[in-house]
Amino acid sequence: MIAIIVGTNRTNALSKKVAELYQNLLNDQNVENQIIDLGELPKDFVFSALYEHTGTNTEFNKFNERISSADKFVFIVPEYNGSFPGVLKAFLDGLAYPGSFKGKKCAMVGISSGTQGAVIALSHLTD
């Protein structure tokens, strides 16, 4: 199972359209996949699902389960203010660590209107 993560919660984001293109390519090859759209996160998850509230937000827990069940990942990451979106950082902070991604392969796709193609955003995420 490959999870395609839309790395923003922005409405009508280009990232979601790119994720759908990836999904179509995987579907054409009969590869099991799912899109995880951060725009569908619970609106209050930063306050109700992180830190001392880990495991208490049932809606966020569904995202955690979907991530845990994936074997590989494709991150679609837009560049925001010279880095990646804060919602993606908060989402990653709420996941089981290090188990969510340990030993699993990830591809990163940067989206930027600049000439460097989100290289700094992807560098920050890789860190």
In words, what does this structure look like?
The protein is an alpha/beta fold and 127 residues long. Helix content is 38%, strand content 19%. Strands 2-1-3-4 form a four-stranded parallel beta sheet, with helices on both faces. Helix 4 links the parallel strand 3 and strand 4. The chain is globular. The protein starts with a strand and ends with a helix. The model has no long low-confidence stretch (mean pLDDT 92).
Task: Walk me through the topology.
Layout: E1 2-6, H1 14-28, E2 33-37, H2 45-48, H3 58-69, E3 72-78, H4 86-94, E4 105-111, H5 119-126
Parallel strand pairs: 1-2, 1-3, 3-4
TL;DR?
This protein is α/β, with parallel strands linked by helices and 127 residues long. The chain is built from five helices and four strands.
Number of DSSP strand runs: 4
| Mean pLDDT over all positions | 92
Strand order of the largest sheet: 2-1-3-4
The number of helices is: 5
Q: Report the sheet-strand fraction.
A: 15-25%
Distance between the termini: 25 Å
Q: Report the major sheet.
A: 4 strands, parallel
Order of helices and strands: EHEHHEHEH
Low-confidence stretches: none
Which class best fits the helix and strand makeup? alpha/beta
User: What is the gyration radius calculated from CA atoms?
Assistant: 14 Å
Shape estimate: globular
Helix content: 25-40%
